[in-house]
Amino acid sequence: MDAYLLVIDSFGIGALPDAAEYGDVGANTAAGIGEALGGAQWPHLQAYGLGNAALLAGETIPGCDAQDRTTARFGAMMEKSPGKDTTTGHWEMAGIVLEKAFPVFPAEFPSFPKELVQAFVERTGVPGILGDKAASGTAIIEELGEEHIRTRKPICYTSADSVFQIACHDDVYGKDELYKMCEIARELCDEYNVGRVIARPFIGEVGNFSRTKDRHDWSIELPGKTLLDHLRDGGVETHAVGKIGSIFNEQGIDVSHHDAGNPACMARTLAIAEERSDQNRFVFVNLVDTDMVFGHRRDPKGYHDAVAAIDAFLPQLEERLHPGDLILVTGDHGCDPTFKGTDHTREHVPLLVREVGSTDSAADDQSLGLRSSFADLSASVQKAFGLPSKGEGQAY
User: Fold this and answer.
1) What is the pLDDT of residues 275-315, one digit of tens each?
2) What is the C-alpha to C-alpha distance for residues 57 and 11, in angstroms, rounded to an integer?
3) In 193-334, where does DSSP find H-type helix?
4) 310 with 10: CB under 8 angstroms?
5) Fold of the 2-99+222-384 domain
6) What does CATH list as the number for 114-219?
7) At a CB cut-off of 8 Å and minimum separation 6, what does 267 contact?
């Protein structure tokens, strides 16, 4: 059997009960997009039961109504771990529930502890840093790119997530030099329990900078085994597509494909599906553009169309699979492009489980209910492969 877990990055379906603690009351990524555009056009996700999943979270998605009969099993998941970031969401769906949120740096200058900046400058040999505040990645390279080129000081910045990000122009520091800086920063940030260090290379001229596809993430060490480890230990071949390998530090992964951008990740997923083998396989895919390119930039039309491209990709993937294979679709947090600010939002996420070859079923027979943790996904995938469920979570 093959199972494909597709994470539509930041695809939330309504604020969680504790959203007030995060300033996210009223956030709803999918519904906000649908309302802004006069109705979402995601027919395959709708047939899977996306609208039905939203109802379980007490919400509706304009243009994506609940169906009387669905082609997939559907549920809504609540994040049990504190936080609303990439690492926390992915780790929980892989069976690790955190007790404490990763710490975040203050938004205003100076964001980073003086000792951390000093150690970074000494270890890397750079002439200092620029930024030292929370910012949009595209905005800060426009603001400081010219000074960066002139001074050779890397642009170091953070966000509402637990991140230390480093942006450098390719002509100032090549990719290998930037990655080395990030490896040093990762060592230094371990002391502060920072979730991720991220390389943000960019190119272009003043007034026309653009980020390249050579972004790379360095996550903090995992606290234990995940779904990927448990599957591999059970004889299932594990594949990672997109930034999954970086999120899990390649732990538990047999084959890792660091494709950048949704089109490349979807093409890679189709290629994997065509390379059929007799071995059981699990393919973990992150589709980041919804979050990175459109969510944070507050672009509901771009976000909608990115989801529409994923929606159109689903039948292409199904065509390459065998009866009994699984496609699972979910999100890792929210990032409502119609909500205030530019940060992630604390939301429910959908859980859609399509068994290839199955026929439409009455919606009340297909409901997986409201799940109390993303970790239920991990337990359920292990069960689907005939393995005992290890780690957090309850199988459906």
Assistant:
1) 987 899 999 999 999 998 999 889 999 999 999 999 999 99
2) 14
3) 227-233, 244-247, 262-274, 289, 300-319
4) no
5) Alkaline Phosphatase, subunit A (3.40.720)
6) 3.30.70.1250
7) 259
